[in-house]
Amino acid sequence: MDPFFKNLGESVYKQWKKRNFDLTLFPEIARDALEKSKPSSNIDLQDLIHGFLLHDEQPFQSSSGFGQPELILYDNPKFYIQALFWLDGTTDIHQHEFSGAFHVMAGSSIHATYDFEKARSITAHFRLGDLKLKHVSQLETGSTVSITSGRNCIHSLFHLETPSVTIVVRTHADPGTGPQFTYLPPHVAIDPVQQDGLTTRRKQLLDVLEQTEAPDYSDLVVEMLGELDFERGFFILQNCIGHLRDLGTWEQVWNVFARKHGRLAAPVKSTLEEIIRRDALTAMRITIEDVEHRFFLALLLNLERREDIVRLVGKQYGGDALATILSWAEELIQITDSGLWMLDAKLPWITGLEEEDHPLIFLKALRYLIKGESSSGKIPTELKSLGARNFAQIKEIFFRSSWRVLIR
Ligand SMILES: [Fe+2]
Description:
Elements: H1 3-18, H2 26-37, H3 39-42, H4 45-54, E1 70-75, E2 79-86, E3 93-96, E4 100-106, E5 109-123, E6 126-139, E7 144-147, E8 150-159, E9 164-171, E10 182-184, E11 188-190, H5 197-211, H6 217-227, H7 230-247, H8 250-261, H9 266-287, H10 291-302, H11 306-317, H12 321-331, E12 333-336, E13 339-342, E14 345-347, H13 358-370, H14 388-400
The structure holds fe (ii) ion.
Fe (ii) ion (FE2) binds at residues 94, 96, 155.
């Protein structure tokens, strides 16, 4: 066992014992101990890795799939200390069934906190409500943040460097504070641990039908939605929305669910659309390697306010943040067989415009929308060649894409 973490664990134990192991005091005790001991300044990451690889005297290791990977550095019946490595970074928006504190030992992260307002339980494992972003900040190496269990501490982290490493001092589990909900913005909370084996197998079977291009795929989903309760209907829709959209039957299938569940269904539609948007951006992160572009994608994935994105781009790269974003927009243009793409905005070929002139005109349109000069409602001179109808169409496409957060 690494002597640094042995000392840290023993010191936390001593402090907490003095306070009779009061659970409400643990986050503060853990945070103070991490701030005082400062692993980021006092632990050499290479030494930690070598020590763990070469010495057998380590605490019991869990088989947890959290972290990439998770190393347990100190273990005690009341709490433990873990190092979490993050290679590709984003966590879901989640709450905890444990409490303590985490410390950014290497790398830095974007940290967002949320409230889940007007929450109502559909089942013990599924809730509806309004997820509201509270605060966004960049956590530098050396930052420490406390964690409380339950619904008052909902957050997400996006790790900027590879690897990022966090040290967590945490309880094993705080009774009565579960489930450890994962939040699907803007309106759904699900219990990720709850395993409904029958639904899992049905989703897999639907994937088989998708792969084999079964002609009755949409009809079967419609029939299932007629039979299923709200929660399981949601999971079937979540699984099938992508393929149903490709088939052109999504609206028809959605209407079956909406009719069946009435007002309860309304929050589900925007949640499913947001899942699709996030999945598309996450998939792009696999192919986009440029560090600045990945940073930008992370912001579009995780932030929903223009001012937060502008502030974080300015902080990270200095200068005029909007100009930086527009230069990324230019670099991110992709011309494929299916058309011209700027991230998830698929732009049309304009009749009468040379192919090579398209990127520039779309960039000008985006610059115009982002800089917020559209209040007069008129088309600027530089975009006149597009014509009013094309301009309106392009504006609509940007508004429906991930760029919308930046548009005034
Ligand atoms: Fe967390």
